[in-house]
């Protein structure tokens, strides 16, 4: 599915990622944890193709294709979805219109005809039910005036609509109360299949009570310093990140 | 988004073509360049006008000679040589048109290209069209069907011949001949336009529409529209404008006068797409327009809705005089400027009657190296009780080489007035574009979505066919621009 080799990334000449290696197979859920400033969000942005970042070395192969050669919208249509840490408001653009444009772009990419209005609305209804999002939200402009939790739910709703092969969820749990956290996590779990993969980027272990990872990585100072099973998350929760820092000489 | 990428996309915008820029090869009857009393007499004689028309023109001309071009607008306009313009040019036609078959095939082809079918069978149901090419009206459709309701919809020239009493009664009552430099010029030399009369108690059964087209070279277009709505009547009127691409600037100075009586309602929509000049700012139409309506009767209503994407220079302030008690007016505008276009546009609301209401919603979108200004006046006279106004002026910037300015003027003479003004300036953010990209939407489509979302409030006020056209126009005018 995804293979990252020796990825080095800088912003304004400052190196943030210092040689990341990561292999993700279809159906796997990987959690990436780590302290603030470790480079977690940078990794997510680079996968999605944000061009604030400069890739100085390394490669990313996604389903046999060189991801770094692709424009952000093409990566999206190939099946990469980024759940934003801070979803963006787009005033005046209705969620319906936004999603319809996006879904039909994905369909065009696959050589399918655009959905008719009624098929599209049916799809929306089904997915809304699946992720338990309120129609009140989808009837408004994209994320406009949404609370933090509503924005995150809306991300999961969009993910349900677009059915990505690889979902990268960047701190989806931040700013969520426990109920919203459960809804978001349930959504992610319901969308999980044997073919698609998920990268869950998080600070805290609590999200991983709901979304059970196959592999947990610790990202520290631009490198993956530890990789283990789900028990690693619990260990981190208990001991904090200081022992990682000490082990890595900082 | 990287700087170079932004510049590249902005460049792409600048290169988007003006698709109405063709020239129709037809024989024209023009009177040569220059302006004098003789020229005015010649225009009047060619149009076989009654004496009062010639007097009106000459009075306006003599007044115009004493005036100077106004300089208060936030516009840079090179000096215009008024002697270098042809003031009358009309497609040559043999006799008066009796049916569609009599229209010059070249002219028909022109309007087909513009997407304006003259053929009544093919017309969208319920839109009657009057088309004005250069100085004269080519064809008015559905005249018969309208006449049955007592509605008069014809070219201004025909109205002068057939309804001189109405013309004499109303012409110049809302925009007097000495109103302003361009209004005086228009009053002296105007050659055609549209006339609409809705009798008492009649709801006009269809949308009325006029398409203006400048075709001939070196020609100025000076048209006049007069709409009179008697008590309890209603009309929705649309106008559209295009011109060929030419290197020199061409002058367009129009007048629109609207009279709305007791409980009557007028909706006036414009999609203005005159040639804006090329990307270096060469050529394009100078658009100096005086549009004004009076809500003369009680509870009269006048709504202006406009989408302005064309012209090298736009100088235009559709205004309403709210004279009747309880009358109201709304102004909805989207003005797009790109490349080197300049717009100084807005509205004036003059509250005279008691409990009069007005709303101004202005959305400016600037891209390229353009300049886009909102200028608006809200005036409440001393004896006007209970006036209310709400104004909202938003500016959206694409790129960092364009400018947006807001010049609101308030003259409040009565303490009971409630006046609110809101203004915002925003940019289409890289974040918004990237968010759309990440969902699979290309940058161009993302801008289309965002701009149309931004302008939705205004576009929603337009009749449906026009709204669709306006949306496309916005997308074309701004294809690919990001800031």
UniProtKB/TrEMBL annotation, chain A:
Keyword list, A-Z: ATP-binding, Nucleotide-binding
One MF term in the entry's GO annotations: ATP binding
Residue intervals of the ABC transporter domain: 2-246
CDD domains tied to this protein: ABC_FeS_Assembly (cd03217)
One Pfam match: ABC_tran
InterPro entries, per database record: AAA+_ATPase, ABC_transporter-like_ATP-bd, FeS-cluster_ATPase_SufC, P-loop_NTPase
Family: Belongs to the ABC transporter superfamily. Ycf16 family.
This protein's name: Fe-S cluster assembly ATPase SufC
Organism: Labilibaculum manganireducens
TrEMBL record, chain B:
Pfam families assigned: SUFBD_core (PF01458), SufBD_N (PF19295)
Annotated ranges, domain SUF system FeS cluster assembly SufBD N-terminal: 131-204
Record-annotated SUF system FeS cluster assembly SufBD core domain positions: 212-453
GO biological process, one term: iron-sulfur cluster assembly
Tree of life domain: Bacteria
Similarity-based family: Belongs to the iron-sulfur cluster assembly SufBD family.
The protein's name in its UniProt record: Fe-S cluster assembly protein SufB
